[in-house]
Design goal:
The protein is an all-alpha fold and about 220 residues long. The protein has one domain. Helix content is about 85%, strand content about 0%. Helix 2 crosses helix 8, helix 5 packs across helix 6 and helix 5 packs antiparallel against helix 9. The protein is globular and about 55 Å long.
Amino acid sequence: MFESMIIALLVGIGSGIVSSAPIGPTDFWIAQLIFSKTDQSHKRILAFILGVICADLIYLYIAFMGYAAILNKMGMPAVLLLGGSILLIVLGFSDLHLARQKPKTKTPLDHSKNNALFWDFIFGMTLSAANPGFILFWVFTAGVLNHAGIPITGFNTAMVSFGVILGDLVWYGGLAYFLQRTAESLSGAWATRARICTAASLIIFGLIGLYEFITLTVGEKYG
């Protein structure tokens, strides 16, 4: 039992890091918070990461409990993809507009710090859940456990979940630390350019998501 627990934990940590490591919208949103030098940036980043972790755990349990096929039949992946893509485009254009204004201009949701933390948590969940392919990743993770002879029990699932939390915190915590050190070494002009780049990246990922949504829906209609 102890060996199964350790393997489940290690699989969870590895899965958390691997699922977070590909550079994507979540990484650019963290960069946006840092380069915009917004109030409570550390708390907002933590709230955002917690949202990402929640989305990962939800997808993990969906995959481990065998509900992925049901959600696919309901069309949920397309809905998540569309919603997440629109959110990315709106956030990108909003921050692109603010980045071109005076440095003291407030960033989105800075008018209410408590609301900012709440919405950053929601953004973390939404941006992470907007990639329906993650369900397949967690199905693959369940297959890795089965291949290793580890049964998908409640206890082992809890250990994997704990490992995913650690893996996500390691990746995003390290990324935030690196970006923070980078931001401190940049002048105001370069920090603004970096912010514009992160905003543009959010828009690009949103447009890619819309293209994938159109491809997915057209393929289902005529396929």
